[in-house]
Amino acid sequence: MKSKQKISFLLCFLMLTSCYQTLDFDQLDNYVLKPVYTSPITYFTVLPFQFFDSNGIQQFSISEESEFPVFENSFFRDNVVKLDFNLEIRNEFDRNVILQIELIDNNNNSVYNFNSIEIDAGELNYSFLEEIETTTNLNLTNTAKIRITAFIENTGTPMNSADTSEFVLKSSATIYIESSL
Questions:
Q1: Helix-strand-coil percent breakdown of the chain, rounded to 5?
Q2: What's 99-119 look like in SS3?
Q3: Which of 7, 9, 72, 105 has its CA 20 to 30 A from that of 59?
Q4: What residues does each domain of the chain span?
């Protein structure tokens, strides 16, 4: 029994006199969260017949508009520091395709325009990255939609509306956040 008392006393003594350091919770004031989120934006496949109107007349552009509700969330709107827009494109057409991408607000006003992107005919593995810093593009957080317009090259020869070649576009956005606790 005495040995149990000695061991208990020794353990209590060690626990009460062991080394300790006060916790500095002020360090949390300087901590910055830096999460990164990636989300798909739009995906579409265009076939040659979609460039023809109901009268069979070839049109040279087609447009797609997608919602971009990221900035409806105040956490993202207040803390975003950078956006990366990624595109993966497969152009099986026998002509070049030029893309114009525009970020627009709820009133269809332009917030940000990408430089035109030209994809060569037959390019099956085209990748594109647009990095946008919010410090130099203050209106970026007003973005509500993304408009992508594809223009096909006018070679003087109309496309074959029965052709099965495809133009495929996949896009995603990576959102970089910095927020203190």
A1: 25, 45, 35
A2: EEEEEECCCCCEEEECCCEEE
A3: 105
A4: 32-180
Residue-wise DSSP of 30-72: G-EE--EEEEEEEEEEE-GGGGB-TTSPBPSEEEEEEE-GGGG
Task: Report the chain's C-alpha Rg in angstroms.
Answer: 28
Write out pLDDT tens, residues 9-63: 777 776 666 566 676 667 767 778 889 999 999 999 999 999 999 998 899 999 9
Domain 32-180 in this protein, CATH class:
mainly beta
Query: Which residues neighbour 9 within 8 Å (Cβ) at sequence distance 6 or greater?
Result: none
Closest CA relative to residue 150, chosen from 93, 85, 110, 86 = 93
- Which pairing describes strands 61-67 and 179-180: parallel, antiparallel, or unpaired? unpaired
**Rounded Cα distance, 35 and 65, in Å:** 28
pLDDT at 33: 83
Global pTM reads 0.79
Kindly report, residue by residue over 79-106, the tens digit of the pLDDT.
999 999 999 999 999 999 999 999 999 9
